[in-house]
Amino acid sequence: MSNNYTYYLKAIVNSYAIVFFSQNRVLGLLLILVSFFNPAAGASGLFCVLVSLAYVGFAKYDRQDVEKGFFCFNSLLFGIGFGTFYHVNPAFLIWLVVGCLLCTFVTINLWALLGKFKLPFLSLPFIITFWVMLSAANSIFQMGLHQNSSAILNELNDANNMHNTGLFGLSGYVHFYYYPDLFFKALSAVFFQNSAIAGLLIAIGILVWSRIAMSVLILCFTAVLVFNQLTGIYPEGISHYHLGSNFMITAMAIGSFFLVPSWRSYVWSVVAVLFTFLFVNAFTRLIGVFDLPVLSLPFCVISILLLVLFRSQKGKTKLVVLQHYSPEKNLYQSLNCDERLCNFKYFDIKLPFMGSWLVSQGYNGDITHKHEWGQALDFVIADEDNKTYLLPGTLPENFYCYNKPVLACGDGVVVELVDHIEDNEIGAINIKENWGNTIVIKHTDGLYSKVSHLKKGSTKVSIGHHVKQGDIIALCGNSGRSPEPHLHFQLQATPYIGSKTIAYPFSYYTAQDGGRVSLKNYDTPAEGSLIKPVAINPMLKNAFDFRPGYVVNVATESGAAETFEVYTDSFKQSYLYSKQTGAIAYFVNDGTTFYFTGFYGDETSLLYAFYLAAYKVVFTDNGSANDTYPLPGNGFNLAGWLQDLIAPFYRYIKLSYQSNNTADGSKIKITGIQRKNLPNSGKQLMEAVITIDAQGICGFMVNNNKSTTSAQWTTGNIY
Prior knowledge:
Belongs to the urea transporter family. With 719 residues, the chain is α+β, with helices and mostly antiparallel strands.
């Protein structure tokens, strides 16, 4: 029962907050308070939210969409507008219910219709419903409604029409300096008010929710005033309602909500302001013929037109892919994905051999890797003295790499093969058949790998043969233009043996520099590097083998408990879901590394603690991994607020993560550390330890300097 109360309370608060593209509780509660500055309008708005909520709950619409306020915020706007326009009487109450239901039905239909094109319905349901009710009320039959004013702009800009009783009535007469007063009244006009105090409270809520959104509002408010001054479009000044509900809301939508905040989004928000001048004037003329107000129609039309434009063009202006209802979180998550997940575009290419090999010639090498064939690698095996052979070194068999297995670097199909060319004597080369024995494998459209200088008659495959990564396909030889045994490897965009090379990284390998071994991911080894494939620890790999259906119970000594289950979404992305809190943590397991890609939900949950602890884990003995967290939304933190404000242009705060694997008897411990890094300083924020045994994860501990969470990990099933 308590969960239902929480659900409905969130849905009510979010129905208010989402008017400003937010899910922030503080902003939502302040908007509820502000709506009651006009008691009749506030009560009507809240009543309409409850009616819509009851209907969509009864109709079993998706609870997450309902909780976010999707189906109720247009009814809220209708209720507030209706309560502002008309006197309360029995007919008012009847038509309020009818209009609210109509608005809900229009919302659902536009949600289904525009959703097919992945477009938002914005405040179109409110506009359509309000026009229908106004047209009906202004007909010769009147419907029993008594209008407070016949013109919406007079209603919104005439303080005498406010309810002048008590504190709320007085608020309409409190004046600030001219421009702040205009700014705050414009914000209050979104809720059909003309109060600087109401606008101030809304501005405080917006500032608490998002510094970026507030900066966009101020920028575009200034742009509107400057442009109006230059053009003289509105010599008497812009109406508060249009300034708030069209100019400023459009700027906020484009500059900080639909687009990932950046200098480009700020520019587009100003461009949107210029379009708004045009559309407000045009719609005032067109719709005024029917004696109807424009309302927020320019905002809806401009936002949808620009969204279609952004989706159809390629460029650096980025749309928000997964909405967090926070400009800061949208930005930080986007930047984090750009840094961490850019490797998703690469096909998984592994080293084409076993054991340690030396890169004898790298990209653009001095010997043969020249010009359009420069992005290639030559590999040999060397001993501690850096020699590639045993004495006397006069036969191919004297060389360490000769006759060693050559592996498929990735899954694919063999498309070219040469296997008849004799191996050269040491020091001799075959210029006529310079590639020697060669295998070309197609991995995906536009990506082929080639290994050359193979031993005659050693190929294990044929053209058309399907291979898996790690399959032995041939033996290293000395054919072609090869004075001594070595393996030539390259990636190319076409299937021919003589194709030009392309630069392309290996997904994972380890490189040895002196006594130090480091893990490289999506990197290309340099000439002189000693490299080898990653040695996977099966205990670590099995511990993080979270496949769909995996269930685990996590409990702390204090009695907190959650059940995690693994699911996959429609995009085949895996995630852990906390049944108790609804939190979700997306992850990737590529067979070498486990890492989280995003967290959504309750940050006090045990799933969030595990997300912090196991942010990135590599499956190697004594392995270490480094990564960065997305910056969180900053609470009441002045330094964090400053970073939020300038984040679209520059970041000076970073959250780093490092994990280290250490053996502890029969167990393995993974220690994770989170640090906050500033230009000239740093601070450890969290330390975590995950304990693993032969059965899998035993438990984890997270210490964030304020509290310590220790949890036991009990699997509910094994596949």
